[in-house]
Automatic annotation (TrEMBL):
PROSITE patterns for this protein: HTH_GNTR
GO terms of molecular function: DNA binding; DNA-binding transcription factor activity
Name of the protein described by the UniProt record: FadR family transcriptional regulator
Record key words, sorted: DNA-binding, Transcription, Transcription regulation
Species for this entry: Acidisoma silvae
Boundaries of every HTH gntR-type domain copy: 12-80
Length: 244
């Protein structure tokens, strides 16, 4: 059966689009268990992307258990692909403002997650959240190091809930936001934005330190609304009032 791969339109994140296209070929039986994927060079030419994009897409498929690789031989479709891993496939029906959609979903979860972290955090949890805040403060605003610190901050808060579902879902969605920011060329940079962002993170940390659930919830809601505005979008905050 011939593959139906073709050149991609530029989207929010090219490795995601490449991985989604290959996943579709597997799901529809055009790539079968044991089949070898075309070479990185061939895929890059077919999709009209760089080999680095293809390499990242295949790495993602490998993590998801859809393919496996052998050094010097290439990538192969897994015999028993894992289907219980959390993934988000590219969807042409997705709203154009992917930032707003992602931030809205984060808000529904993370606002309550911050409150739960305030209730359940341990001294070790606080140390990890503080370390992430300080790492962000030491890095240039909007840089990869800063974004990695931001990801670590939200992951540390998710971990402080001591709920594995929060940890997996929130970390995954936060990483999707990071990918979207990077693929869009980052954020606008200004000293005022850097100060506002640090202030928001420290407010969340302070609320969690004091075990003030209401303050943590409000601080996270304010932060997500502010973060969305800094990348040029807005999100409704009314849906962020849910409780467990």
């Amino acid at each position: 059966m011939a593959l139906t791969l073709g050149r991609l339109d530029r989207g929010p994140h090219l490795p995601t689009l490449v991985a989604s296209s290959i996943t579709r070929e597997i799901a529809q039986g055009r790539l079968k268990p044991g089949d070898q994927l075309p070479t990185e060079q061939s895929l890059a030419e077919t999709f009209g992307v760089s080999r680095n994009v293809v390499r990242e897409a295949i790495a993602r498929l490998r993590v998801e258990g859809r393919v496996w690789s052998r050094q010097g031989r290439g990538a192969f479709v897994s015999a028993t692909p894992q289907t219980n891993l959390l993934t988000i496939e590219h969807d042409d029906a997705q709203p154009e403002d992917v930032f707003a959609a992602l931030f809205q979903f984060r808000g529904i979860l993370e606002v309550q997650g911050a409150a739960l972290a305030a209730q359940l955090r341990t001294p070790d949890d606080l140390d990890r959240i503080r370390e992430a805040v300080e790492a962000m403060a030491a890095a240039p605003y909007g840089s990869i190091l800063w974004l990695n610190g931001d990801l670590a901050f939200h992951h540390a808060i998710a971990s402080a809930t001591h709920n594995t579902y929060f940890v997996q879902v929130l970390a995954f969605v936060a990483e999707k936001v990071r990918e979207s920011i990077l693929s869009a060329g980052g954020q606008s940079h200004s000293e005022n934005m850097a100060q506002a962002t640090e202030r928001e993170h420290r407010s969340i940390l302070a609320a969690i330190e004091m075990q003030d659930e209401a303050a943590a919830r409000n601080a996270m809601k304010d932060h997500l609304a502010g973060a969305a505005s800094r990348i040029g979008t807005t999100i409704a905050t009314e849906g962020m009032k849910s409780s467990l």
